[in-house]
Amino acid sequence: MSMLQQADEASKVRLLGLYITGGIVFVLILLGIAGLDTASILSGSIRSGLGVQGATFALVAIGVNLNYGYTGLLNFGPVAFMAAGAYGMGITVTNGGHFLLGIAVGIAAAALLALLLGLPTLRLRGDFLAITTIAAGEVLRVALRSDNFFSMALILLIIVGGAGFLTYALPRLDGAPLQWAAGLGFGAIALTLSSIIWDAEFWFGETGGPFGVPRPTGGDKPIAETFYNWNPYPGGDYSVADIAVIGDILGAIPWFGDVVKDTSFNDRQMWVITVAWALVALSSFVVWKLVNSPWGRVMKAIREDEDAARAVGKNAFSYKLQSFIVGGIIAALGGMTRAMDTAFFNPESYKTQTTFFVWTALILGGAATIRGPVAGAIVFWFFILFIEGALDQMVERDWIPDSVLDPNQVSSVRFIVLGLTLAALMIWRPHGMFGKKEEALLDAA
Amino acid sequence: MRPDADPLASLAEVRATPGVRKPDPILIMDNMTRSFGGLLAVSIDHLEIQRGTITALIGPNGAGKTTLFNLVSAFDEPTSGSWSLNGKQLRGMQSYQIARSGMVRTFQLTKSLAKMSCLENMMLAAPAQTGESFVSALIPARWRAQEREVQARAEDLLERFNLVHMRDEYAATLSGGQRKLLEMARSLMTEPDIILLDEPMAGVNPALVQSLLAHIEALRDDGMTVIFIEHDMDVIMGISDWIAVLAEGVVIAEGTPEQVGQNPAVIDAYLGTGTGID
Global pTM? Predict the structure, then answer.
């Protein structure tokens, strides 16, 4: 790409930023004239975009970006990796393990999940992988609802491992009778093992079933205790308005001063946000280093054409697995950080909805770029809260009658708007905010 | 790598019969079959490829030429049989392992890596890159020097294939013929002993064909072994040292271009027996 094209693209991105900002200001003015509390809408949106939600989703999106943007793997199961991280850590800590050990276990759980999921499924291509990963995420969530999780997990392991073994080994056995014998024999062994495990009710640890971690029945060590013991922020609320001189000046500006003052986080949130954004910076740096190395070149080659990579001596399967593991660990970091914020989680925290949010954020920001997933996550949560804030106030003031939209339905409507935005994005800017337009065009060709 | 005797001269001694032994074979196939359901696409009793020569693999459409390429490069698995490269058995190896052991292939439908620059396409293929391991990738000091060497070699090859002006362009922006060139140049980055070209001339304009032919002859003169699938008879007769003819998956004839050109079995395979009895 020539310098001229680069400059051109940069100015287009700036122009887009201008449009978005202009659009927001315009809507705010309209809402303000109409009499809504625009300062609180705006500050709520900023709190979400730059806060815990923006940061944790940015982390997960960075992981998915490594899978999809750079390796071409349609990983629709990031939520499974978030769950693996959170549960790995949560169960370790509630059973008295140290917090740092918990983090290690969470990361290991994500890596293990990547292996379990990857070994049988990474032979699949494109949309088949998407279907399998989305199913795997759901299977994991449903399995977690059972309070006898580990027996379930062992059975799952046998089935998944067995499926992998069968897809790998069967075609290599000569003769149909031998294949049938192997398949049936394996099925019999799997069934027997599963029933033994089920009866023995192995209880290695407890997920709390539908109630989550830590269990409401008590006795568990709080999962985020150590984390908040390390909190360097003294108790209280923090906002830019608290900073000497600058804060005073900004705070004195009418309207804008209210926004600045309202955009505040308490000490606990500040600590989570600090850690989360530090992890975002670290992960972005690592991914940036990786994709600009020969390792990243192989990844991109696999994204473009797996067979071409194989034909020049690259072990595509191994690289896809590596991408899955690294991306999965980054997503698990996101899952663990989010668990620190809530200090509690249950299987319902890991619905497929989260997966789609992450994907929307990634597409919005632009896949196969370093800034894309981060900017996408911030903008995504900014808009979600913006729409919700504005609609909430409208419903509250009865501008919209309850027969059309009652207060409980607002949170659903924001997703309708979001879906429309995503559709519009796909039509007019498929490469997202920061993606390279030429690359999107090459894809279409 | 080059044998003492001139490989071309020693071929002249070889009898033109299917499955004949050659003085210095690099690639040997034995009893290779591949069936798709009831169709036996490839069935080769014995086939040897002489080192340091250009061998053309010809035959009517559906003769099993590309299937044979797929089999020996492990992009497909044979129903039975074995094959060896430089005396090393290849059965059971993965395609990337075969590429690493010195046999590289191109594809009939060109596989250029669209959203990568031509230079990146080339640099990808260099063998044994330190920076391709996860840990080393994060420590550029370990691979920077090698990266410079790889780039220099890639640029040399791009120069040889008249692609150096497209160096930083996306491979997707190349013309069909240029993509063929790029894929061939990329394969050479792996420093192979033997290269399998699947219809390298298809869709390439006549002027470029001449330069491609010169490249292929230059490869042979550098000691490389070339097997190529082609339909253009002028090209085949002009460049090949040896021709193997496939029809319905079976090697029906082998020999020098002159011998094959006069072989009645070959003419039958291409034109049909003409009697209607078949």
Answer: 0.87
